[in-house]
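Per-residue structure
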Amino acid sequence: MSGLEWLAVAFSAFSVWLTVKQNLWCWPVGLVGVLLFGWLLRDNHLYSQMALQGVYAVLQVYGWWQWTRPDSVREARKVTLLAPAQVHLGLLAGLLMSVGLGAVMSTWTDGQQPWIDAIITGFSLVAQWWMAQKRVQCWALWIVVDLVSVGLFLWQGLYLAAGLYALFTLLAIQGLREWRRDPALVAAA
C-alpha cells in the first residue's frame, strides 16, 4: 500500500460520506480523490477506471454546479426519484458503454481484467450522473458497482482500495436510506 493509495482512499471516503450528508464540500473533496485515484489506477493498468476518474473529475464540477445553481423554482437541487423508464434507459446506457469500452480495452490495451473494468466504468458513469442529479436510485446502483469493485481490487492486490469500496458499499446503503427519507423527496416528472 502506497502513500498515494492512502491519500486517494482518505479523500474518496470523506467525499462519499459528505455526499450522503448532502454537504456541498463533497464535490471539491471528491475532485481531489478522483485525481489521486486516476494516478493510482494508471499505475495498476486499470485503464477503463483510470479514464473514469477523468470523467469523474468533470462530473465533480458538474455536480457541484447542479447542487448549488439557483433557478426560478428552487434554491438548489432537491432529492428526486427517477421514473422506471429513466432507470431502464440509464441501465441500457451503462450496458452499452460497458460493451463498447470492454471491446476497446480488451483489443488495444494491456489492461488487467478489461471486461470487468469496463462494466464497473460503464455503470459507474450512470450512477455518478444520477448522483449529480440527486436521484435516489444512484445509491442502489452504487451498491452493486462497489461490490464488484471490491472483488476486482482484491484480485489486483489493491487491498486498501478494496477496503475503501467495501466502505463505499456501506455508505451507499446509508445514502439510500437517508435520501429515501429526505423530506424534500419528490417523484420525477
Strands lie at 80-81, 186-187. Helices lie at 3-20, 26-43, 47-68, 84-108, 114-132, 137-156, 159-180. The chain has one domain: 3-187.
